[in-house]
UniProtKB/TrEMBL annotation:
Protein name from the UniProt record: Sugar ABC transporter ATP-binding protein
SMART domains xrefs: AAA
Keyword Magnesium recorded: no
One Pfam family here: ABC_tran
Source domain of life: Bacteria
Length: 494
């Protein structure tokens, strides 16, 4: 990809790019150039201008000043979304813009202008889905029935079928994804980059960015304040630019009391009864594997060495044994691994317990009323299908299942507030704090530094077989980000 002069050719470029909305300067004289096949992370606080830059690139927002180039040529005026898409620039949002009632096949070719025969279009669609490893996505399935990760893949394949994908813009694509889906998306991104597609990846999840990007650009107040290869990044500067300076909650009080979970060598992690302790690491990183091993989900990997709970060894070959001991686990991918789609909200909370606790229908109804109150569950009645509730309220049901019918001896949570709205986050944190105060040790694994900093009494940054402790203070989030950056080799730069 190196030109004869020794400089990379340009795929996408902006010069003197400014966008103003009335008196708001969203972008201020931006100079940026992206090479073919580059994967660039675009970071910044809320309101920094990230979405505006993507919207300019897709033609959704007009420039106030400046120019935009594709493969060295100025984009012809007027720059409209239709034209930009035709030139090979596509955008994937957190919630893909697909027609939920139409089939996968119909969505892939909607408004494509492709007049070839239906059978040849079906063959190409099947081949394109298979090529990205999505053999499980049926062409005739209604898109609305697919989990979010698969809908994003359909959106991506739709962009690919339009012709050569020159630039792919990703706007917080993993905000509501589980770790397995994030891994699939990152693999796809790497494959597209190898085929020459330039990728601009907006995320507030720094671990996702360092997992897959080779360069990071940080925006602040509409200007570029950092532009650096991921390798050799100044972690102190970056973590400082990214972590909002928070005031410590004056009312924060740890409820730690008595012995809880201890993980001996090599990790040296502890989580006392009544404590909420965070494990922070990269997307799909070792912090999630620790939870799975503790729960007996990774029988091949064996138990976590030297794990004890209240002094007794902790080692399970299957989740049923963990549950029998009072160890409960809430997975990151609530739709795939947690909730049971066709069932009512009430059954989603109580079904696993009816047999175990010999619980009658009446007790379940009473318990469900308590769950609604504890988690402030909003939506239809408990007899309604779980699908009728919003994402945050579905997550509250899953947490209720593993915390209320029987209080756990140890609660393991993977990204418990990911992809839920701000109000639900507050409700979930409050309920979990109450559980900890009643004496349960709570271990939270996440790749979101703000999730850890918003709910944990202490944390560890987990990389490989090391865990570095981080105390709760006003620099907690910044410290999490910095320690992770300093200890993580960038996979794609290798
Ligand atoms: N359509 C619009 N009309 C008026 N102001 C806007 C509009 N779009 C964005 N802005 C303003 O422009 C600035 C940049 O916003 P932008 O959405 O690009 O930031 P961002 O970095 O994407 O933030 P976030 O992470 O919150 O999405 C903000 O001050 C925002 O309020």
């Amino acid at each position: 990809m190196i030109s004869p002069e020794g400089t990379s050719p340009e795929r996408l470029g902006f010069s003197g790019l400014s966008v103003r909305f009335g008196s708001t300067v969203a972008l201020d004289a931006i100079e940026l150039s992206f090479a073919p096949g580059e994967i660039v992370g675009l970071l910044g606080h809320n309101g920094a201008g990230k979405s505006t830059l993507l919207n300019v690139a897709t033609g959704a927002v007009p420039r106030t000043e400046g120019s935009m180039r594709l493969d060295g040529d100025e984009l012809p005026e007027p720059v409209t979304p239709g034209r930009v898409a035709g030139l090979g620039i596509a955008v994937i949002h957190q919630e893909p813009a697909l027609a939920p009632n139409l089939s996968v096949f119909d969505n892939l070719y909607l408004a494509s202008g492709d007049t070839s025969s239906r059978s040849s279009r079906r063959a190409r669609a099947r081949a394109a889905l298979d090529a990205v490893g999505a053999r499980g996505i049926g062409l005739d399935s209604p898109v609305g029935m697919l989990p979010l990760g698969n809908r994003q893949i359909v959106d991506l394949v739709r962009a690919q079928l339009r012709g050569h994908l020159k630039v792919l813009l990703l706007d917080e694509p993993t905000a509501a994804l589980g770790e397995a889906e994030t891994r699939v998306l990152h693999r796809l991104i790497r494959e597209l980059s190898e085929q020459g597609t330039t990728i601009v990846y907006v995320s507030h999840r720094l671990p996702d960015i360092i997992d897959v990007c080779r360069r990071v650009v940080v925006l602040q107040g509409g200007a570029v304040v950092m532009d650096s290869p991921v390798e050799g990044l100044d972690s102190r500067d970056l973590s400082h630019a990214l972590a909002p300076q928070v005031d410590l909650e004056a009312s924060w009080e740890s409820t730690a009391a008595g012995p809880g979970l201890e993980l001996g060598s090599p990790f040296g992690i502890s989580c006392r009864a009544g404590e909420i302790v965070g494990l922070y690491g990269i997307a799909a990183g070792p912090q999630f594997r620790i939870l799975e091993q503790l729960y007996g989900l990774r029988s091949g990997a064996g138990p976590v060495p030297e794990a004890t709970l209240a002094g007794s060894p902790l080692s399970f070959s299957a989740p049923a044994a963990a549950i029998a001991r009072g160890v409960h686990y809430v997975p990151a991918d609530r739709e795939r691994d947690g909730l049971i789609a066709g069932m009512s909200a009430l059954d989603n909370v109580y079904l696993p317990w009816r047999g175990r606790l010999r619980m009658g229908a009446r007790a379940a109804h009473q318990g469900y009323a308590e769950a609604r109150e504890t988690y402030n569950i909003l939506g239809p009645s408990g007899d309604a299908a779980i699908a009728a509730f919003s994402g945050g309220n579905r997550q509250k049901h899953l947490l209720a299942r593993w915390t209320l019918p029987r209080r756990p001896e140890l609660l393991l949570l993977a990204q418990p507030t990911q992809g839920v709205d701000v109000g639900a986050k507050v409700d979930i944190r409050r309920a979990l704090r109450g559980l900890a105060a009643a004496g349960t040790p709570v271990l939270v694994a996440s790749s979101e530094s703000d999730e850890i900093a918003s709910m944990c009494d202490r944390a560890y940054v987990v990389t490989g077989d090391r865990a570095v402790p981080v105390e709760r203070d006003e620099h907690m989030e910044e410290n999490l980000l910095r320690i992770l950056l300093e200890s993580t080799p960038n996979e794609s730069a290798a």
